[in-house]
Amino acid sequence: MTPFEDLPLLRAFVRVVESGSISAAARTLGVTQPTLSRQLQTLEERSGAQLLLRDTHRMSLTPSGRQVLDDARSLLALAEDAAQRLKTDQTGLRGHIRLFATIDFGQSVVSRLLASFIQANPGVTADLAYSNRPVHMIEEGRDVGIVAGEMADDAVVARRLGRMRRWVAASPALVNSRRPAAGPAELAEWPWLNLAGAQFDGGRSVTLCGDGREERIPLQPVMISEGVTSLREAARMGLGVAVLPEWLIAEDLASGALVRVLEGWRGRDLAAYVVYPVQRRVPKRVRAFIDFAADYVGALLFPGAD
Questions:
Q1: Tens of pLDDT, residues 285-295
Q2: Of the four listed, 51, 85, 87, 199, which is most buried by Cβ atoms within 10 Å?
Q3: Judging by DSSP bridges, how do beta strands 95-101 and 124-130 pair with one another?
């Protein structure tokens, strides 16, 4: 008997990997730890190779384990998709989606997107995690992600949704306390708030675009954060100037809580993508979510390239 003829064994193996331990997986599956250990042993015997390296502190996949994990996920998704197709005509989409999103875009736009999708498909459930490290989340078994920032990895399929406009913004009090900047270089002396991560054009420099050209400014930020919402709050308090997305600060600009700095310049646009694994079969509910996300998010963003 091959290791791929017993779906419950494969499901147990996938759950152990995703839970991080045999004891945690046993609680989730509702079986005893010895039972789950025997199932893993059986799977390794049928595979003819050790799949997991285990000690008292950590558990990791062997190369054979990584291959079996990828194939197991594909087979389980195929079996679930086949069962789903039998029910779709009567009940619509059903099943669970493991979703992730980059932090701030996820907590606002993606949360509303997911709520709209579940309302349109009541048979679907989901859990939403946040991470600015999309490849890591795919490796952990997430089905699909909505991410902001540039993508450059062969481990995922990245479907572009559009691009986010970003403005240079600060509080009126900060702007009034400084000598007006004639160009990007003069802004380098201002107190800066910046995102962490090269995929967001963040860290200790920022690129500003205007007059058909780009200028990269080296910075010594007073605050660096993984979350753009925290930068907006600090900017509203007058701590510094920041490059902030239009979808986040449109109301602040309208109310005057924030004002644009250097009207003819803006931050480099960031692309938004829906991402999913290259080698894993995508279940029908996930494919439907990808198409739904493309329409929903695409309507909020600017199309095309920068």
A1: 999 999 999 99
A2: 51
A3: parallel
Between CA 71 and CA 78, with CA 75 as vertex, the angle to 5 degrees is: 140
pTM: 0.67
Could you name the CATH architecture of 7-85?
Answer: Orthogonal Bundle (1.10)
- Spell out the domain ranges in the chain: 7-85, 93-306
Domain 93-306, second-level architecture: 3-Layer(aba) Sandwich (3.40)
Residues present in the chain in total: 306
> Using one digit for the tens of pLDDT, what is the confidence trace for 255-299?
999 999 998 899 999 999 998 887 667 888 999 999 999 999 888
Closest Cα to residue 258, out of 170, 131, 137, 182? 170
Facing residues of 156 across strands? 277
Calpha distance 127→130 (Å, rounded): 10
Among 280, 9, 74, which residue's Cα sits nearest to residue 82?
74
CA 277 to chain centre: 13
For residues 41 and 13, give the distance between their C-alpha atoms in angstroms, rounded to a whole number: 10
DSSP-derived secondary structure letter, 179: P
Residue 194, helix vs strand vs coil: strand
Predicted pLDDT of residue 305: 46
> Which pair of tokens denotes residue 196?
């962490």
Residue pair 121/288 in contact (Cβ under 8 Å)? The answer is yes
Residue 168 has pLDDT above 60, yes or no: yes
With a CB cutoff of 8 Å and minimum separation 6, the contacts of 37 are 22
DSSP symbol at 198 = G
Reference 51, options 25, 35, 38, 69; nearest CA is 69
Please give the pLDDT value at position 265: 94
State yes or no: pLDDT of 108 exceeds 90.
no
- Across 27-49, average pLDDT: 87
The H-or-E segment that residue 167 falls in is strand 156-170
CA distance 87 to 94: 9
